[in-house]
Amino acid sequence: MGVFIHPLTDWGFKRIFGDKELLMDFLNSLLEGERVITDLSYLNTERQPDESNGRKTVYDLYCKTDTGEYIIIEMQNREQEFFKDRALYYMAKSIVQQEIKGNGWKFNLTAVYGVYFVNFLLNKNDTDEHFCKDIALVDKHTGKVFNNKFRQIYIELPRFMKSEADCHNFLDYWIYNLVNMNKLKEISFKDRKAIFSRLERIASQANLSKEERARLEEDWKDYNDLFNTVDYAKKEGKAEGLAEGKAEEKKENARKMKVLGLSNEMIHQVTGLSVEEIETL
């Protein structure tokens, strides 16, 4: 590990964006030119199911702005086959659980935003190089927003390829620091925005307590184990499964990858097994 905590680990992400000043500045950079959030409050990240046999929803961070909007913030490192559906479900859950008061059918809902950092490509065949996908409910013919109560913003970190010199706005500054933090000796752009001095102080390993450092090391190990396992699975699949054509070894590798939570599509790409075969394992 370097000078700073790794912001893409679960603990590191929540330490940074669990700081209200940092989160507000990031959100204002993301929504620059639209609105300014002057305050927010953190909410319980666990949402209980509506029915006894339903599934509990757990967000990374969940907050409410000073003007009432709900914002879900998620960091996803591991590729998931139906991640966009999961993100949609999280948004819908936040909408459904809003209390509609009174007997009339006056559904004046509060807007819900979903901000999703993803450390993988949502669509490998997508030629759009822009790292930020802004999804809203729009009229397909006019392109105008039809309902402003639902919005998803996906930040595809692997698509951010800018150098420090290529960064020209506050969102670029933020993403550059997050993507490169584990390699930086000091946080960039402190001379352009004071909030980055705060980011440097909170993200510095030198400022961690003994307990926080232990938690960081455990989280860092889990993060590396995840990516090392994926790399190993790919090598195993190619060297033994694809190259040698050993059907049983392919299946065994596929089973291991399923246990690790890899998508069927990724397992298919690594092992060569069909998606139908993988589903039966």
Detailed description of the structure:
This protein is α/β, with parallel strands linked by helices and 281 residues long. Helix content is 40%, strand content 16%. It has nine helices and eight strands. The protein has a six-stranded mixed β-sheet with strand order 1-4-5-6-8-7. Strands 2-3 form a two-stranded antiparallel sheet. Strand 4 and strand 5 form a beta hairpin. Helix 6 packs antiparallel against helix 7. The longest helix has 33 residues. The two termini are 38 Å apart.
* Percentage of β-strand residues: 15-25%
**SSE pattern:** HHEEEEEHEEEHHHHHH
Roughly how much helix do the residues carry, as a percent range?
Answer: 40-55%
N-end to C-end Cα span: 38 Å
- The residue-averaged pLDDT reads 85
Poorly predicted sequence stretches spanning 5 or more consecutive residues = none
Measured on Cα atoms, how large is the radius of gyration?
Answer: 21 Å
Largest sheet: 6 strands, mixed
Q: What is the count of β-strands?
A: 8
Count helical runs.
9
Structural class: alpha/beta
